[in-house]
Amino acid sequence: MSHFTPPVIELRNVHKRFIKKQDLIQRALQLAGKAPEPRTVYAVNGVSLAIQPGEVLGLVGESGCGKSTLGRVVAGLHRQTEGELLYQGTPVEKLNRKDKLAYTLGVQMVFQDPQASLNPRQRLHQILGEALYVHRLAPAADIPVCIDQALAEVGLAAEYRDRLPHQLSGGQRQRVGIARALMVSPKFLVCDEPVAALDVSIQAQVINLFMDLRAQHGLTYLFISHDLGVVRHISDRVAIMYLGKIVEIASTEDIFDRANHPYTQALIAEVPNIERRKRVFVPIIGEIPSPLTPPSGCTFHPRCPHAMARCREEVPQLEGVAPDHWSACHLNHTAA
At residue 268, does pLDDT exceed 80? Predict the structure, then answer.
């Protein structure tokens, strides 16, 4: 009898909305019955996906599509407005105190800006050792050794332990951010644009570090990026996100060779390619709509060259278009 291993992380119809708090004048108008409707940002709108142990899922989309918010929901930094977040098969809201701590430590986040994510007043040994002290994950006498081992694992010498963040380069600071995440022996890393702020030459080094750490520790990644070239290099599967929704998800090979959704096709067409260096660059028409007032029907229809009347009225559902390949597009139902 085969043993079923649940996904490390599973999202079931997850929504995240941000409602602007009313100021004093708006509260007074509300008491008088004249207050306008509160402004609501629809950041994530009904995302369902599962990430298996050892997998790297790339999450791609333009700035403002909600991918960072989704990553923060997965990491527990934001609580979803609707839907369920499951950790190793159990809803996070139903975890007991011990298992909730296992989730908190088991899912760590690597942030985009290494300068902003590190305390400028703490030396590296304080930054890296803090979680071990707070959660009593190692005897106090062993923590310095753990810190030196973590620095070595991300390619930094032990002498860096007494430096402040401003004494490091951007690439070194990001390595410290990765080491901090690894200090608590996580199972899952949410990597939110972890190389976007780095020089191109340093990006390759950090990407290779992520791949090495995955192999050494059996880590699972949600790798968020707007750079399809980076995602193609590191991911097993790719999910394409547009204005809070997943519009396509498939293996990396299928996404790049057989993209189905017009938005995915447009993104891939923009990727620099030496074999297509003479082609005329044609950007996606228009800008991503505001999440305050998302369009009706398919949210991509104002920018889609294939939009039909149905696209403006009916929300397309994520449906299978090939084995392990899902897409949300009405064009899949127009073929004769």
Answer: yes
In the chain the beta strands, taken as DSSP E runs, fall at: 9-19, 40-51, 56-60, 82-87, 90-91, 107-110, 188-192, 220-225, 237-242, 245-251, 319-322, 325-327
DSSP string, 302-318: TT-TT--HHHHHSPPP-
How far is 296 from 315, CA to CA, in rounded Å? 8
Domains of the chain, start order: 9-333 (3.40.50.300)
Helix axes 200-217, 170-182, angle to 10 degrees: 20
> How many angstroms separate the CA atoms of 78 and 181, rounded?
18
209 HSE (CA, 13 A, CB side): 24
Token pair of 297 as six digits: 């029907």
**Using one digit for the tens of pLDDT, what is the confidence trace for 291-304?**
888 999 999 999 99
How is 148-187 classified by DSSP, letter by letter?
Answer: HHHHHHTT--GGGGG--GGGS-HHHHHHHHHHHHHTT--S
Distance CA 137, CA 158 (A): 21
